[in-house]
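User: My instructor asked us to take a sequence, write out its structure as tokens, and then describe one feature of it. I'm not sure where to start. Here is the sequence I was given:
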Amino acid sequence: MPKIEFLSDAKSIEIEEGESILQASLRAGIPHTHVCGGKARCTTCRILLIDGDENRLSPPGDEEYELVKKLGFAPNIRLACQSYVRDDIKIRRLVIDDNDIDLAMLKRSDDTGKFSSTGVETRVAILFTDIRDFTSFSDNQLPYDIIHMLNRYICQMRLIIERNNGEVFNYMGDGLMALFGVEKESWAIENAVRSGMEMLEAMDNMQPYLQETYGQGLQMGVGIHCGDVVIGSFEDSSNAMKMVIGDAVNFASRVESANKETGTKLLVSQTVFDRLKEKIQIGKTCSVELKGKSGEHQLYEVLSISD
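Assistant: Let's start with the prediction itself. The structure tokens for your sequence are:
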């Protein structure tokens, strides 16, 4: 009988006649997630075919075909509950824990319509993040693993931002930009700094997962500034995209980049410090030249923020 090697679980099992991959893994004691009960109504049992021709698995049925077509899965990503083995294969489970389940079940709504295409000027707190040494990390990983890790990372950071009344406005590879105070400025700066602290904590909590799954850890930098921006939407015949422009956006990006030369993780501008100096604990105080900006600018490393 054909064998299945589960790389993420370091197990090899022999398939029984008429048994799906999900049934086989559960029989072997592998904690294979299947929120819908193996009925092709979700994708939490999804697997990645690592080694072997896709013809070693049964072709997708109608239910699986419609689901993976809608989500745009590659041919080597299948639902374990609908896949039957024809020959020896190596696979990896893609939904390992609660964070992955949340990611797999997440449905996002498009809310770009609330921003006029002519633009709206407003004062907001701007947060930028960037993963350190991501290029060297990418060089040592499979392309799918890189995308999966980024999805997991971005999903966690996005939830933190939204919990603190912020909104992600742009993803830039391994970084993102979020705004606080788009609807109402009150507490925007404080919410941004709290998000930054929580994001760093979440990244620390990811280290065991990163070490176990990818063989190396990752760190991130956060930069926060407050200023006036223009928010609008760019529309074409197929979709609408939010856009944010203004000198404050560029300045916030430079604040985040300064973490690299100062050896810090969270830096804020003078504007942010002036608003929160009674609530935050400061580490380093840095006077740095920011790319594209004249003169030196005072930046502050934030270590904690009081409740």
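For the description part of your assignment, you could build on this observation: Residues 122 and 228 are 6 Å apart (CA to CA). Try explaining in your own words what that tells you about the chain.
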